[in-house]
Design brief:
heterotrimer, A mainly beta, B alpha/beta, C alpha+beta, A: mainly beta, Folate-binding fold, four-stranded antiparallel β-sheet, two-stranded antiparallel sheet, 1 helix, 6 strands, 9% helix, B: alpha/beta, eight-stranded mixed β-sheet, 12 helices, 25% strand
Chain lengths: 98, 414, 1005
């Protein structure tokens, strides 16, 4: 049961949020020019890392804003949460140990 | 391998059980194998077993980073069924079901496969339409399937609250469905594979996949490099990690999936009950514990820990459908890591790397497929091509669009 | 029978409050302050249960929640509760308890026959047998299941209520023993908001079980008073911390009224489930004594040393007059002294060859005989200890030698050392380290989980002297407060004398030898009492290769019982380590899984069942539907009117009547549940263009258009009508079930992909009450209650008009889901009931017929209108629905577009929506029936499609169906075959999907 920092509201209980997978996968612009492989990669394939993960969260039962977070998928430690338009915070260089 | 039987048990009792053999050896890894299987869960061990016993490939190693069956094999709610909607799924799961039906004898290891019946409940018109379609599809695929009226449901489950928030309108029963003893499946396959010559190597973590000229040549492990003619990755929750080592991505995300058991009580529920309308998934183990499937958290995690609100949202519905469970007590809760594809169907596939094969993506429902998955994967590895049962589950479906969308089609968690 | 084992004085029970209770039908008395366990012991009842596998007679071994044996079926009828631990049940008047897992009686248990064949039932025997013949397993299993299990489930609904509650604090202290009280006091002194939880009914922890010591009780009282006076402190007794989750989220169960007896709690809940978020946690959970593993150490009367001490000191009960203390450390000497002090005849058997002289002197003073370097090699007395045999241990402790001394006794108080209760820390994700000097694991403060900060203090941290515990507790309290940014202060140091003997030098003897090799001969060395797991089972597991901790647990079932191995885990690990010749940490530690003690399901989920289980959603007109006899259908969480049966009508006839009425006169349907989204902003059109497959640029203000939404896989996931209300203002409708999903979908794209677009989406589903009036008389009806000009030309199909309806402001959309002349009247939700009443009144002269969702389904199917989720299933494209007309050929982009042209979506044989007309027009195909390519006598039969919607259509005058059929669009006119599960075969012609008014005249009428 995480405490998640909503960039708009502050620390809130996890039950107020939902997670929506890997962040920073922009929708391709000229989709008609794409191959089936390129399109499939965009729609289905994910890095699913064991380690730091940039992911999308929605503050469902709160401000209903989407934001991104950098979280470690083994320790579940949130390193940062940031607005969609914010620059990506760096990945800590401790190799994922916390 | 010395056979287990009532007589061997009696004979060994006379010598105070001092003469039992190891269930499987603990060999040092050889320099190279014809086939290396990554992952010593049920699916990996079954793959090795069938490679050695049916495909004539005995120079096989199973590499397990921890202990056999320590992943989802030992963490699931042990449900076995083959009542799937789509032909590809029915092909796979019914193939597994047929193998389950003789598995204890085949392995000479009692996996306690209990065909006590599996009952899906319908709580709305939409549910009724869903089971109506699925029941027919299953039946016409040659798999057993029966519709039950609410009165028949009550007869099977006298303690059910038919008149719950979403009243029970009917049920779909697969009598051949049921449960099995999860650990025994891993151990039975391990013992059988070992006897057929497979090296089972525990505490051996794969740290790299070596590829030369786009062809796999072996794996680096915590116990050194192990060469391989072919590599089969059956690493469940860690499949994406193995894929990354080999240089590609998979259409997978890993989530925690939780479950819980109650204290043991005398028999109170004799079949497996699944209700998507109320969100209940319960059976009773032979030991007497209620085994309750919970949900999966929707965030990627490798932590084998879930969030507690899911447990609350599991127990509430359980008490709604079975109000007298309210005074029973929860004994244990835990989580596993499930590797989930977008269509909730598994991946059995060749990969961009030659001779490297993947079997993963079983999500929340892999246990029931264990024999079928291992069998199909073994034959496919041996042939170098996915066989007819495995072929629909290839990776290229995510490019072609030929998803096997059991989840969307049936709106059923599985 | 009087309380034969009650001491004449002493203990914390209230002797002025005698209580009557029964066990297995016999009535006894005890005192307020007793547990069921202490009261039974006071009455000399030693045999309390039967073990799981061998049905061996069992008695108490503990005085706390670690008790594995004394499991009771408490109370009867709806209040019955299986597997309760006698040590945790506070005695109340009239308590009724029964023993479990025995038949016909506890004294004579047929199941004990298992004991006779125990030799054939080693660990995991069931994996090796019960396989022949294969068909017999289900029979074997039936009997195995009957034999297994412990108590019995209630068979009636739980009459009790439960509460759940949330709490936040700075410092949560788990345990109100000396360390916990000190920690709480120190943290609170710094102004921290503190919560203290203790599973006992009284704070004090282990101090309560020490020889009556005024100073200890004074310390407890002083601490409790100061805490209770502090408004920042909440001290909860009878409250067990059960789970420790990420980010310091702790769950706890408070037994609010259990101790009063069933049905006696008044309006208070039976139990309260706490969900606590703490900035810092101090774990002061104490420790659990380990039994020594010796031959037949499960006989009733063999107890943990501290339990014997606790029964004497806290409850004034001497469990037996002749006590043998069997120990490998100093702490149990205090129990010897206490027993002796209470009049017991005491013998000490110490496995260590050299006991410190000060202790020896004390023994001599009290006339207690000591066997140094000796061990108990057998215990006599099947249903209660009668005597033990004691022999000298070899130097390596692996064998016994010399003369066997027989000591008559009724109690063996054994101590193998203490295991700190690391459960909470381990659950939090913290790691443990092994400390040789105490032969146990403690939390490794350098390897705690960063996100769940906690500090362990007291005996759970490996300190077994009260003064040190208090010191550690104080420091932990100060540190925890400091970490919260407060300044905890150490109060004046507490110092008082406790009657205790420190642990001393523990000499681990994990497996006590006997005269024959372990596993041979009749006696058994138990380490897990409840699951009947013996040292021989561990040896077998090792022999067969089940050596990792988890394999050991799973193969032998050690630690898997309802006590979760509180007294057994470390012994099992150590025995395995010895067999393997490795250190204990090399074998590993088991995972401590929540909950700490079993947790009542009703308390966890109690608030979410019955009337509070998923609230029903009602439309503003709900009351009217109820008053007018509607039957309701669950659609998501909504209750929708399904049909309105008149007297004597069944569902079929009601639906047929309603369906006809709509096409013959006019009907009204409550459509309020449809999702509604208000979309505004200068880029609104961009969003709508992306979300729907068709073109929207040219939609005029005041006009409506139907749209389909796809996900990025290209599959239909919702549909609805969207209306342009103004230049940059749209009103979107969605399916009832899809409302939240569509809203989320739009917001997701807006916020994450196109944040620069100026669009505002607002869910207005519940702001509007909607009545749809459909039928040839709809216009006349509407005109009679509105100021809007509803004439054909002034208000054409697929437009919207604003005005007053029934005197209230309304938006009226001329859209139709029936193919009839139709209007959807939207009024602010508060006018919903007014609107339906006004329509009903005005409708009388137009034969207005209220209809429900079922008639709606028939009507729309007659027109071939799809229901997303019924005719689609998340795997169909617009083309599959024969709806190419709605897919823009000109738009560059819309969501899901690229997926339309993948290999698989372009394949010809995909299932496609068609109509089906059965050869026999009276046959209504079951929904879900499959079309087969050939019929054979028995399955399998290849299928090529299935029926998605099927009704008797009164307007078509026959049955109609919609189906998905492979390559269906090209097969119109073909005859196909459906094979039902009951063997029936039906033939049907593939048709168009529109069955009524194919030209669409009526809707434009």
């Amino acid at each position: 049961m995480f405490i998640i920092n909503c960039p708009y509201c502050g620390d809130r209980d996890q039950t107020e949020f939902s997670c929506h997978g890997e962040a920073h996968i922009p929708r391709p612009t000229e989709t008609k020019k794409m191959t089936d492989e390129e399109w499939g990669d965009y729609v289905f394939f994910r890095t699913n890392p064991k380690g730091y993960h940039r992911e999308r969260w929605l503050h469902d039962h709160g401000c209903r804003r989407w934001f991104n977070a950098l979280r470690h998928t083994v320790t579940d430690e949130f390193v940062a949460s940031y607005k969609v338009e914010d620059p990506r915070p760096p990945i800590p260089d401790n190799g994922g140990q916390s | 391998m010395k056979a287990y039987s009532l007589f061997s048990l009696a004979r060994n009792a006379m010598s105070y059980h001092r003469n039992w053999q190891r269930a499987w050896r603990s060999p040092e890894p050889k320099k190279a194998y014809d086939v290396v299987i990554i992952g010593g869960g049920g699916h990996g061990l079954a793959t090795a077993y069938y490679l050695a016993t049916q495909c004539g490939i005995t120079n096989v190693a199973v590499l397990e980073k921890g202990w056999l069956g320590g992943g989802n094999t030992g963490r699931n709610t042990t449900i076995v069924r083959s009542n799937y909607l789509l032909d590809a799924s029915a092909g796979m799961y019914e193939h597994a079901m047929k193998l389950w039906e003789g598995l204890s004898q085949e392995l000479n290891y009692n996996v306690m496969f209990s065909q006590r019946g599996l009952l899906h409940l319908a709580h709305s018109v939409h549910d009724m339409q869903e089971i109506g379609r699925r029941g027919n599809a299953i039946y016409l695929n040659g798999i057993d399937s029966e519709f039950l009226t609410p009165a028949q449901v009550k007869e099977m489950l006298p303690i059910i609250n038919l008149d719950c928030r979403y009243p029970v309108m009917g049920g779909l029963l697969q009598r051949r469905g049921g449960t099995a003893r999860h650990d025994a499946v891993a151990w039975g396959y391990a013992r059988g594979a070992d006897a057929a010559g497979v090296d089972i190597i525990q505490n051996c973590e794969v740290t790299g996949v070596r590829v030369e000229n786009n062809k796999v040549i072996g794996v680096d492990t915590s116990r050194g490099f192990i060469g391989a003619g072919k590599v089969g990755s059956v690493a469940a929750g860690h499949s994406s990690v193995i894929a990354e080592m080999a240089g590609f991505k998979l259409p997978l995300e890993c989530y925690p999936l939780q479950a819980l058991v109650s204290e043991p009580i005398k028999p109170i529920i004799d079949c497996v009950v699944m209700s998507n309308g109320i969100h209940v998934y319960v059976s009773q183990s032979d030991k007497g514990e209620l085994v309750v499937g919970s949900g999966s958290d929707a965030y990627n995690s490798y932590s084998q820990r879930g969030s507690f609100d899911l447990i609350e949202h599991t127990v509430g519905p359980l008490c709604e459908l079975f109000p007298l469970f309210s005074r029973l007590r929860m004994l244990r809760q835990w989580a596993g890591i499930v590797d989930v594809t977008i269509d909730r169907s598994p991946i059995l596939s060749k990969t961009p790397v030659k001779n490297l094969f993947f079997n993963c993506g079983w999500g929340t429902g892999g246990f029931k497929a264990t024999p079928g998955s291992g069998h199909a994967f073994a034959h496919s590895i041996a042939a170098g091509e996915m066989n007819s049962i495995a072929a629909p589950f290839s990776l290229d479906r995510f490019n072609s669009g030929a998803l096997i969308d059991e989840g969307a089609a049936a709106a059923v968690a599985h | 029978m009087t309380q034969t084992h009650r001491l004449s004085e002493g203990g914390l029970v209230d002797r002025s409050k005698p209580l009557t209770f029964s066990f297995d039908g016999i009535t006894y008395t005890g005192y307020r302050g007793d547990t069921l366990a202490s009261a039974l012991l006071a009455n000399g009842v030693r045999l309390l249960g039967r073990s799981f596998k061998y049905h061996r007679p069992r008695g108490l071994i503990a005085a706390g929640s670690e008790e594995p044996n004394a499991l009771m079926q408490l109370e009867t009828g709806p209040y019955t509760e299986p597997n309760t631990r006698a040590t945790c049940i506070e005695l109340y008047d009239g308590l009724v308890a029964k023993s479990q897992n025995r038949w016909p009686s506890l004294g004579f248990d047929v199941g004990a026959a298992n004991s006779l064949v125990a030799r054939f039932l080693p660990a995991g025997f069931y994996y090796k047998t019960f396989m022949w013949p294969a068909s017999m397993w289900m029979t074997y299993e039936k009997y195995i299941r009957k034999a297994a299990g412990l108590g019995v489930s209630p068979t009636e609904d739980d009459p009790d209520v439960y509460h759940g509650t949330y709490a936040h604090c700075d410092v949560l202290v788990i345990g109100a023993g000396p360390a916990g009280l000190a920690a709480a006091t120190a943290a609170a002194s710094g102004g921290a908001r503190v919560m203290v939880l203790d599973e006992n009914n009284t704070p004090g922890g282990a101090l309560l079980g020490t020889s009556n010591n005024a100073a200890s009780l004074e310390f407890i009282q002083r601490s409790v008073q100061s805490l209770e006076r502090n408004e920042n402190v909440q001290l909860l007794t009878r409250t067990t911390a059960t789970g420790y989750y990420d980010y310091n989220y702790i769950t706890a169960i408070e037994k609010v009224t259990d101790h009063m007896g069933p049905g006696k709690g008044g309006t208070a809940p039976r139990q309260r489930f706490w969900k606590i978020r703490a900035k810092q946690v101090v774990v002061a959970a104490g420790s659990i004594e380990r039994p020594l593993v010796f031959a037949d150490n499960d006989r009733p009367g063999v107890m943990l040393a501290n339990a014997v001490g606790t029964y004497i000191n806290r409850y004034g009960v001497l469990p037996g007059n002749d006590v043998v203390v069997f120990t490998n450390n100093d702490s149990a000497y205090q129990v010897a002294f206490d027993a002796s002090e209470s009049g017991g005849v005491v013998t000490v058997v110490d496995t260590r060859s050299s006991v410190q002289s000060s202790l020896k002197a004390l023994l001599e003073e009290k006339n207690i005989k000591l066997f140094e370097g000796h061990a108990i090699t057998s215990v006599q007395g099947a249903k209660g200890v009668e005597s033990v045999r004691v022999m000298k241990l070899s130097a390596d402790g692996d064998s016994v030698q010399g003369q066997a001394w027989e000591i008559d006794c009724s109690v063996v108080a054994s101590s193998g050392g203490w295991t700190p209760s690391c459960h909470m820390v381990s659950q939090s994700g913290g790691k443990l380290k092994y400390i040789e000097s105490i032969a146990a694991f403690v939390p490794d403060e350098s390897r705690l989980k960063k996100t769940s900060p906690n500090i362990s203090a007291g005996s759970c941290n490996g300190s077994f002297v009260t003064a040190t515990c208090i010191q550690q507790g104080t420091q932990a309290g100060v540190d925890a407060a400091t970490r919260c940014g407060l300044h905890g202060t150490a109060a004046s140091s507490e110092s008082f004398t406790v009657n205790e003997v420190p642990l001393g030098t523990i000499s681990p003897l994990w497996l006590v030898p006997t005269t024959h090799p372990v596993g041979e001969g009749r006696s058994k060395h138990f380490h897990d009492f409840q699951n009947d797991v013996t040292a021989a089972d561990i040896q077998l597991a090792a022999r067969e290769g089940f050596v990792s901790v988890e394999h050991l647990k799973r193969y032998t079932t050690t630690g898997m019982a309802t006590d979760q191995g509180k007294t057994s885990n470390l012994n099992a690990l150590a025995i395995m380590a010895n067999i393997q010749g490795v250190s204990i940490p090399e074998v590993g530690t088991t995972t401590f899984r929540p909950p700490y003690t079993p947790l009542t399901l009703g308390a966890v989920g109690g608030q979410e069942s019955r009337e509070l289980f998923i609230q029903e959603r009602h439309t503003p007109m709900h009351e009217w539907h109820v008053d007018n006899g509607a039957e309701f259908e669950d659609v998501g969480d909504w209750k929708r009117s399904w049909y309105y049966p008149k007297a004597g009508e069944d569902m079929h006839s009601a639906v047929q009547r309603e369906t006809l009425a709509v096409r013959e006169s006019v009907g009204m349907l409550d459509a309020s549940t449809l999702g509604k989204i208000d979309i505004q902003g200068k880029d609104a059109i961009k969003l709508i263009e992306m979300a729907y497959t068709n073109n929207w640029q040219k939609l005029a203000i005041g006009s409506c258009r139907y749209g389909l939404m796809l996900n990025e896989h290209g599959m239909i996931f919702d549909d609805g009508v969207t209306t342009r209300l103004g230049e940059n203002h749209y009103h979107m409708t969605t399916t009832t079930g899809g409302a939240a999903r569509v809203m989320g979908w739009l917001e997701e794209w807006l916020q994450t992909e196109w944040p620069e677009w100026e669009v505002y989406c607002t869910s207005v589903t519940e702001q509007w009450a909607v009545m749809a009036i459909n039928g040839p008389k709809a216009r006349e009806l509407l005109q009679s209650i509105t100021d809007i000009d509803v004439s054909k030309d002034a208000f054409p199909f697929m437009t919207m008009r604003e005005g007053k309806v029934a005197g209230v402001p309304a938006r009226v959309y001329r859209i139709s889901f029936t193919g009839e002349l139709a209007y959807e009247i939207n009024v602010p939700a508060r006018y919903g009931k007014h609107l339906i009443e006004a329509l009903a009144a005005a409708g009388k002269k137009f034969d207005l017929c209220p209809y429900g969702t079922e008639a709606m389904h028939v009507l729309r199917a007659e027109k071939g209108f799809i229901i997303v989720g019924q005719d689609t299933d998340g795997t169909v494209t617009p083309h599959d629905m024969d709806m190419d007309w709605i897919v823009s050929k000109t738009k560059e982009e819309y969501l899901g577009n690229r997926s339309q042209v993948r290999i698989d979506t372009q394949r010809t044989a995909r299932p496609q929506l068609i109509g089906l007309l059965t050869e026999d027009p009276t046959v209504v195909l079951p929904e879900g029936a499959h079309i087969v390519s050939e019929v054979s006598d028995a399955p399998p039969m290849p299928t090529i499609g299935h029926v998605t919607s099927s009704y008797m259509s009164p307007n078509a005058g026959r049955s109609i169906a919609l189906a998905l059929l492979q390559d269906g669009i090209n097969r119109k006119g073909d005859v196909v075959t459906l094979r039902l599960m009951n063997g029936e075969v039906h033939r049907a012609t593939v048709s168009d999907t529109v069955f009524v008014d194919a030209e669409g005249v009526r809707v434009r009428g």
